[in-house]
Structures are given as C-alpha cells and as structure tokens.
Amino acid sequence: MLDELGQKIVRELQEDARQSFREIGRNLSVSEGTVRNRVRGLVKSGTVRIGAVSNPQQLGMNFICIMCIEVKVGSVERVEASLIKSPNVYFLCGCTGTYDIIGIFIFHTPQEFDEFVKNVIANIPEINRTSTFVVMHVSRSPWEHDLDVTALSRP
User: What's the pLDDT tens digit per position in 96-122?
Assistant: First the structure.
C-alpha cells in the first residue's frame, strides 16, 4: 500500500512522467533525492512502470473485442501461452466462472479478427468454446484515464 507521499508521486508521474525528479520534489515540497529514491523503489517493487501508453484506436486498431474462452480442464496455461504469442492480444487473464480465460483483442478490421479466429483460435485444440463481445464504444481506457491511487487507497 502506498503512503500519502507515494500516492502524490504516482499522481505527478501520471500527469507527466517526463518531468524531472527536481520538479516533482518542488511540486510536493520534498527533496529531489527523496523523489528519486521513492520512484526507484516503486519501479523496483513493480508498483509502477514508467513508459508510454499507446492508444490502439489512434494506431488504426478500430476493431476491439472481448472474448471469453472455455478450455479443457488443466489446459489454461497452455492456451494462454499460445494466445499471448499474438500481437493482437491486448489483455489476457485466467478467471473463475463459466469461462476460464478472458481477453481483450485488438484488430484493424473485422476481417483481421476473422482471420485470427480461423488461424489461431480454431487451431488450439484445448479450446472448447468462445463467446465474443464486440466493443461498440470505449467509456474508460488506460490511455485516457489514470488510475486514481488516492481514491483506491481509502478504506
């Protein structure tokens, strides 16, 4: 869990990860060294990753879908390992419930998705069935909205 200063540093980085540690320190009334050490710790612990987040739609990936996948018992890891080889897999997780895997997949066109289903999904024998939901619009996305660590830290 992040303390108050950690939350403020993360918020500053979300606003502009290119700003200097000195500038962040000035904004938060702490030393540059404090910010540097905190950021180093946050990165090392895997709490944050500093990098660019691309917007798939701005890159021409205008066909986004969510696919729920049911697999044969004991084969979740094998299916996930096969799927994550594809650059079209934006998000993939194992889960509980009716389906074993849920993924977000991005494509340029519906035809590209059709080819993916024919050439990738259909060639994974451990997949029993899928259910696909086509995204009609995006209301909240990681490329437009930052995670509000302050709000999530409240009990």
Answer: 999 999 999 999 999 999 999 999 999
Cβ neighbours for 44, distance < 8 A, ≥ 6 positions apart: none
Can you give the residue ranges of every domain in the chain?
A: 4-52, 56-134
Name the CA dihedral angle for 27, 28, 32, 36, rounded to a multiple of 10 degrees: -110
Q: Give helix then strand counts, H and E, for the chain.
A: 6, 4
Distance of alpha carbon 10 from alpha carbon 86, whole angstroms: 31
The pLDDT, as a whole number, for residue 15 is 86
Convert the pLDDT of each residue in 17-41 to its tens digit: 899 999 999 999 999 999 999 999 9
Contact 151, 114 (CB under 8 A): no
Please name the fold of domain 4-52: Arc Repressor Mutant, subunit A (1.10.10)
Phi, psi of 152, rounded to the nearest 5 degrees: -75, -20
pTM above 0.85, yes or no: no
Q: Quick check: 31 and 25 in contact, CB under 8 A? A: yes
Q: Give the right CATH number for 56-134 from 3.30.1490.100, 3.30.1330.30, 3.30.70.920, 3.40.640.10.
A: 3.30.70.920
